[in-house]
């Protein structure tokens, strides 16, 4: 997963990293692996589609890093494997909340911490599908893996 690669690259360069995942068991497994590699990584369970959980995540980050943050990596997204005619208004709400609203709000919440660091950076990870056409067969392949 890209998220794992980002965490490992930053931690491998000596950064102290705080990450999140929706599922506690997935998070715990990753944290254990990173600890065995000697990385300084902590984590929180967080569904970024929830405003309350985003606020709690950034409060944890603020506490952990003494009110400062050097890098915010927005690397969350969901993909649509449906025909356009089958997409519901609930689906659209989920896609927008996951792919746009969460990243925007996390930037707002992180702004004071980034400003306090004196050298804050925001990195947005995105799908290549936003730039080039991706075939349905490729999407189905990605879904399986």
TrEMBL record:
Record keywords: NADP, Oxidoreductase
InterPro entries reported in the protein's UniProt record: NAD(P)-bd_dom_sf, SDR_fam, TR
Pfam families, A to Z: adh_short
Domain of life of the organism encoding this protein: Eukaryota
Keyword field contains Transcription regulation: no
PANTHER family documented for this protein: NADP-DEPENDENT MANNITOL DEHYDROGENASE, TROPINONE REDUCTASE
Family as reported in the entry's similarity comment: Belongs to the short-chain dehydrogenases/reductases (SDR) family. SDR65C subfamily.
Name the UniProt record assigns to this protein: Uncharacterized protein
Organism name: Salix suchowensis
Lineage: Eukaryota, Viridiplantae, Streptophyta, Embryophyta, Tracheophyta
């Amino acid at each position: 997963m890209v998220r794992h690669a980002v965490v490992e690259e930053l931690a491998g360069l000596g950064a102290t990293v705080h990450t999140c995942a929706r599922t506690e068991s997935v998070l715990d497994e990753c944290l254990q692996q990173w600890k065995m590699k000697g990385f300084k990584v902590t984590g929180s369970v967080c569904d970024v589609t929830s405003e309350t959980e985003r606020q709690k995540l950034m409060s944890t980050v603020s506490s952990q890093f003494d009110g400062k943050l050097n890098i915010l990596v927005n690397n969350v997204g969901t993909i649509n494997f449906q025909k356009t005619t089958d997409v519901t208004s609930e689906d659209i709400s989920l896609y927008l909340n996951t792919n746009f609203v969460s990243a925007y709000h996390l930037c707002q919440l992180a702004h004071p911490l980034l400003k306090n660091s004196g050298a804050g950076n925001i990195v947005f990870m995105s799908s290549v599908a936003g730039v080039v056409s991706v075939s349905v067969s490729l999407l189905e392949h990605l879904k399986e893996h």
